[in-house]
Write a structure and sequence with these properties.
The N and C termini lie far apart (108 Å). The chain has 11 helices and no strands. It folds into 2 domains: 122 residues, no CATH class; 95 residues, Serine Threonine Protein Phosphatase 5, Tetratricopeptide repeat, CATH 1.25.40. The chain is 81% helix and 0% strand.
Length: 254
């Protein structure tokens, strides 16, 4: 019994010590938190003006961006889109085979009767979607007018996330380079046009043009690969109907 009581008292004392230590540690943590909070309050008080000015600056930037977007960009976009209707009329007439194609394309490029043409819109509304599209129309117009350097210049300024339109633009640059006998550049842009987002219209068309150009450059191995892509993936396209003869020609020439 005595041993039991002695053991019990020892354990009781140990527990009491543990509780005391725990309370001490808790108090220490609370003191640390108090000190940290106090330092934070002092830092905020010391830097209240810079923080306030930073917040004001952020608000001002946001309001400026909002105002610019809604009162500058949006009206410019609307105006540019409206201006684009005039030259597109002449461009479409030229596309549809109306007489005087060169004159129609020139009217579209330069404008008339106080109305902007594609060149004016591309320059005056360069930050808008309509201004970007004007570069495309100008480039295609110059290509049809056989002004290849100008065609390359304006088409190179055009940027589109539309898979078909982007491919047609790159393919048109390829056509312009081909017409001035810069075949390496033509091949590069034909491949770029073909390697965009795959579709059944532009992809086989530009694979075929790339293959023909590779043949002219005597790169018969590349030509075979390009024609084979048409055979394997686009056999039902116009280019796929007689692609076998191009593959055979490329193989024979190697």
């Amino acid at each position: 019994m005595a041993t039991y009581k002695k053991k019990y008292k020892a354990e009781s004392k140990k527990v009491e010590n543990q509780i005391d230590e725990s309370e001490f540690e808790t108090a220490g943590v609370l003191n640390t938190l108090d000190e940290t909070a106090s330092k934070s309050e002092q830092w905020i008080e010391k830097n209240s003006k810079p923080l306030f000015y930073s917040l004001v600056g952020i608000v001002v930037l946001f309001l400026a961006y909002f105002a610019y977007t809604n009162y500058v960009v949006a009206p410019n976009e609307t105006e540019a889109t409206n201006e684009l209707a005039f030259p597109r009329k002449y461009f479409n007439e030229a596309q549809n085979g109306a007489s005087g194609v060169d004159s129609l394309l020139t009217l579209g490029l330069e404008g008339a009767n106080g109305k902007y043409g594609f060149l004016d819109i591309a320059e005056s509304f360069s930050g808008t979607d309509a201004g970007n599209l004007a570069n495309y129309y100008a480039g295609i117009s110059y290509l049809k007018l056989k002004k290849y350097d100008k065609a390359i210049e304006y088409l190179s300024e055009f940027d589109s996330e539309n898979a078909v339109l982007g491919a047609v633009s790159n393919g048109a640059i390829g056509d312009a380079f081909a017409d001035i006998n810069q075949l390496e550049d033509a091949l590069e842009y034909y491949e770029k046009a073909a390697n965009g987002k795959s579709n059944d219209f532009t992809t086989p068309l530009f694979l075929h043009k790339a293959g023909i150009t590779a043949m002219e450059l005597k790169d018969f191995s590349k030509a075979e690969k390009l024609f084979t892509q048409i055979k394997e993936n686009y056999s039902k396209s116009d280019q796929g109907k007689d692609v076998e003869k191009y593959i055979a020609a490329a193989k024979f020439a190697q």
